[in-house]
Specification:
single chain; alpha/beta; 276 residues; TIM Barrel; 12 helices
C-alpha cells in the first residue's frame, strides 16, 4: 500500500508551500488564452498549467465539470491532465463533489481512487449530504489505495447555510456533525489523517471546531473575495493543516508558463506567510 495521502500532502506542503491551484478551463479563460473552447483547448490549458507549476506548488485541483462539458473527448483531456500532473510529481485533488449510496458510491470511488482507473487522482471532493455513512466506500478506497477524500463542510456559496447550519435532532449543526465525523476517522493519525474538509474563506465567523487532524481545503480566496485576513481569523490554531485554493487569480496570468509560475509564487508566498 502506498504512503497515506495525509502524509504525502504534509511532505508536499513542507517542500513547496501550502498552495493548491485550480485547473479550471472555463470558456472565458480559454478565450483569454487564445485557445478554442473545446476539448483540445481544455487539454492544452491543463497541460500548460501542469508544465508551469510542476515542482513549484504542492497540489493542483482540476475542476472536472469544465472538462466534462466536452463529453468523452473532454474526459480524455482530463485523464491526460491528471496523468501529466501526477507524473510531474504534483498531488492531484480532483474536484468532482461526488456523493451517492452503496455500489454507486463504490463505483465512483473506484473511478477516482483506484490506481487501475485512468481517472485515478490522489484525492477527490465528495458531498456528505446523503449522510456521512454514505461516504464509507470512498473512505474504504482511500485507505486501501493511500488516497484522500475532502468532505464538503462549510462551503463559500451563499446557499450553503440552508443545509450546513441546520440543526440535527441532537442540537448540533449539520456542518458540525460532519466535522466531528471526519475528526473521528482521522483520530490518532500522524502528522495528519487523509480525510479533509472543505471550508470556504468567505463563510464569516464560525463557532465550529475545525480541529479535524486532517487537511482543510479553503476555496473562496482571491477573485471570490477571501483573503489573508480570513485565513488568519478562521484557522489560526489549525494553520498547519490549511490548503489555500486559488484559481482565477493565478490562471488569469496565462498562457505564458513563466507568468503562471510567477503568479503562483506570489500567492504561495502570501498565504504561507499568513499560515506559518
Amino acid at each position: 500500500m502506498t504512503e497515506p495521502f495525509g502524509q504525502r500532502l504534509w511532505n508536499a506542503v513542507a517542500a513547496h508551500g501550502p498552495l493548491c491551484v485550480g485547473i479550471d478551463p472555463h470558456a472565458s479563460l480559454l478565450e483569454s488564452w487564445g485557445l478554442p473552447d473545446d476539448a483540445a483547448g481544455a487539454e492544452r490549458f491543463g497541460r500548460t498549467v501542469v508544465e508551469a507549476l510542476a515542482g513549484r506548488v504542492a497540489v493542483v485541483k482540476p475542476q472536472s465539470a469544465f472538462f466534462e462539458r466536452f463529453g468523452a473527448a473532454g474526459v480524455a483531456a482530463l485523464e491526460r491532465t491528471v496523468a501529466d500532473a501526477r507524473a510531474a510529481g504534483l498531488l492531484v485533488l480532483l474536484d468532482v463533489k461526488r456523493g451517492d449510496i452503496g455500489t454507486t458510491a463504490a463505483a465512483y470511488a473506484q473511478a477516482y481512487l483506484d490506481p487501475t482507473s485512468p481517472l485515478c487522482a490522489d484525492a477527490l471532493t465528495v458531498s456528505p449530504y446523503l449522510g456521512f455513512g454514505s461516504l464509507q466506500p470512498f473512505l474504504d478506497a482511500a485507505t486501501a489505495h493511500g488516497g484522500g477524500v475532502f468532505v464538503l463542510a462549510l462551503t463559500s456559496n451563499p446557499e450553503g447555510p440552508q443545509v450546513q447550519h441546520a440543526r440535527t435532532a441532537e442540537g448540533r449543526t449539520v456542518a458540525g456533525s460532519m466535522l466531528s465525523a471526519v475528526a473521528a476517522v482521522n483520530a490518532g493519525q500522524s502528522p495528519q489523517g487523509s480525510i479533509g474538509v472543505v471550508v470556504g474563506a468567505t463563510i464569516g465567523d464560525t463557532a465550529e471546531d475545525l480541529a479535524i487532524n486532517g487537511p482543510l481545503l479553503v476555496p473562496g480566496l482571491g477573485a471570490q473575495g477571501g483573503g489573508a485576513d480570513d485565513l488568519r481569523r478562521l484557522f489560526g490554531p489549525v494553520a498547519p493543516h490549511v490548503l489555500p485554493s486559488v484559481s482565477r487569480e493565478i490562471l488569469g496570468a496565462g498562457p505564458d508558463p513563466a507568468a503562471l509560475a510567477d503568479a503562483a509564487a506570489r500567492a504561495g508566498d502570501l498565504y504561507a506567510a499568513v499560515l506559518r
